[in-house]
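[step 3/7] fold_predict: job queued, chain A
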Amino acid sequence: MNSAPPARRTRAARLTRAAVYAAEVTLSDGQRFASLGGVVVRNRRLVLLWLRRQALRLANGHGIVLAPESVRLPTRDVRPVRFHGSHAPEELRRWATGGAHQDHAIRALEAGFPALFTVLDPAVGLSLTLAGWRGHPTDH
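[step 4/7] structure written:
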């Protein structure tokens, strides 16, 4: 047997084997897109928690660097974005704090569908998408 015992496997190896959910935040101008960050976690609730956290950080930061969170997740936060109006941050905040939006997202993940939320910054034609799905980042 070539595999290391469970206690000797690295965290990355354990996640690779056990993780079944991924999430990513992307920014697009309609022709090009850039990833602001992503995560691979072991369950859909952690994906939703990470997406909510990123939505609130982006909405509350609105282009400024925020202080570290008091609750440390074993993942990195996305890079900050400067929005050119208040519409996108308000929509991000509404999605992250609205019970109906969160219920819809967790039901989509439970059913095997991706959880997607996109906000637009019409002043510059950019869209920001938060996405979570079952599988690894390469499955998206």
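[step 5/7] annotate
The chain has a mean pLDDT of 82.
The helical segments are 11-18, 44-61, 87-97, 99-110.
exit 0
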